[in-house]
Amino acid sequence: MLDNQLLKIAQDFGSPVYVYDAGKIESQYKRLTNAFKDVKKLKLNYAVKALSNISILKLFKSLGSGIDTVSIQEVQLGLAAGFSPDQIIYTPNGVSLDEIEEAAKLGVKINIDNLSILEQFGTKHPKIPVCIRINPHVMAGGNANISVGHIDSKFGISIHQIPHILRIVENTKMNINGIHMHTGSDILDIEVFLYASEILFDTAKQFKNLDFIDFGSGFKVPYKPGDIETNIEELGKKLTARFNAFCKEYGKELTLAFEPGKFLVSESGYFLTKVNAVKQTTSTVFAQVDSGFNHLIRPMFYGSHHEISNISNPKGRERFYTVVGYICETDTFGNNRRINEINEGDILSFKNAGAYCFSMASNYNSRFRPAEVLWYNGKAHLIRKRETFENILNNQIEVDFSTKIEKQLVK
Ligand SMILES: *Cc1c(COP(=O)(O)O)cnc(C)c1O
């Protein structure tokens, strides 16, 4: 999006505000489907947790996408957005059997990643097909927090436990309709992904009634100019060839599924903040914006990089700034960033603010969560109002302290 379009949105809707470019979401969706155009049955299930606004979900529905959900609330949100249950896959980790049964009752696809739950679910509901999340123990992913395929990861059922899975399936007569993996975020090396895929194919051979193989996600997007990203086109070519060969061998045209979050929405997002203060210390110049990790936690939580630019003064001379927030705790968005000269009141734009940004926002410091705007067909649409003071007090219950506290008997 252009700086002046973003600036106008900040003026019209106030700050801080999240802005999403629908056109970018659509082009990423098309880029991925195009990379796999030679797969007969391809299914993209957008990972709701990345950005879960209902208008975003409806946009994905209009593109023909399904959704990947990790909680019963995300399932309900998907249904509310108009997805039919068969367009929703539920991939929880560490949830109760009750919640999985609730999702099954709603008719969505079930993905199980725990042997104990698999055995209980298969015993009670042998007729409901289930997909199994495998942990191939392949180290992929950008850092330890987002890498979920390693040996000590809490995700998936280990490939070393396949004999046990097979025993459960045989004993319960349950029906396994899919095999799944999701090894982590920010995959750089396609060969590692393909290696993990081979493990998935090997596993898939042992199940005779599959409808789909789900390769999860974890595609890396660029965060700054010249940054490396997952080469989707190359992955498309290589995995398509392997997948089509596997289907021949398997004797059935299976569906190839992915569940990308970041790849589809990260670059569509801009987070616009206003500079409250410029503060010179002995060692740096701070630009302090009207936000903090209550609204955008990725830099502090994962060390993620978000490009920051001054859209109020794009031609100003560049200086070095440390961009921080207004939270009473260290909340550095960016250190030593070269940014066009900042004046108080300027609007700073943070890039890659589509995935895991608003969806991780909180009310810390009793601040309001920001508004969200969707840029669609050349127009700005408000898709979430900025919170108000009522939201802060909502659900809180006041105790009457006018009566005396009863004395407790102390032994
Ligand atoms: C979070 C998650 C995804 C999406 O990962 P991205 O890196 O955002 O693409 C996909 N599948 C599962 C099971 C997840 O938990």
Features of this protein?
binds pyridoxal-5'-phosphate; single chain; Lyase, Ornithine Decarboxylase, Chain A, domain 1; decarboxylase; globular; 411 residues; 30% helix; alpha/beta; Ala_racemase/Decarboxylase_C; De-COase2_N; 18 strands; TIM Barrel
What does this structure look like?
This protein is of the alpha/beta class. 30% of the residues lie in helices and 23% in strands. Strands 1, 11, 12, 13, 14, 15, 16, 17 and 18 form a nine-stranded mixed β-sheet that branches. Strands 2-3-4-5-6-8-9-10 form an eight-stranded parallel β-barrel, surrounded by five helices. The longest helix is centred in the middle third of the chain and has 19 residues, at 232-250. The relative contact order is 0.16. The structure holds pyridoxal-5'-phosphate (PLP). Pyridoxal-5'-phosphate (PLP) binds at residues 47, 49-50, 68, 70, 91, 182, 185, 216-219, 259-263, 355. It catalyses: meso-2,6-diaminopimelate + H(+) = L-lysine + CO2. It holds the Pfam family Orn_Arg_deC_N.
Write the layout of secondary structure elements.
Elements: H1 3-13, E1 17-21, H2 22-35, E2 42-47, H3 54-63, E3 66-69, H4 72-80, E4 88-90, H5 97-105, E5 109-112, H6 115-124, E6 130-135, E7 157-158, H7 162-172, E8 176-180, H8 190-204, E9 212-214, H9 232-250, E10 255-258, H10 262-265, E11 269-280, E12 285-289, H11 298-302, E13 308-310, E14 318-324, E15 332-340, E16 347-350, E17 371-376, E18 379-384, H12 389-393
Parallel strand pairs: 1-17, 2-3, 2-10, 3-4, 4-5, 5-6, 6-7, 6-8, 8-9, 9-10, 12-14
Antiparallel strand pairs: 1-11, 11-12, 11-16, 13-16, 14-15, 17-18
Helix pairs in contact: 2-3, 2-9, 6-7, 8-9
The protein binds pyridoxal-5'-phosphate (PLP).
Residues 47, 49-50, 68, 70, 91, 182, 185, 216-219, 259-263, 355 line the site of pyridoxal-5'-phosphate (PLP).
Active site: 328 (proton donor)
Organism: Algibacter luteus
Modified residues (N6-(pyridoxal phosphate)lysine): 49
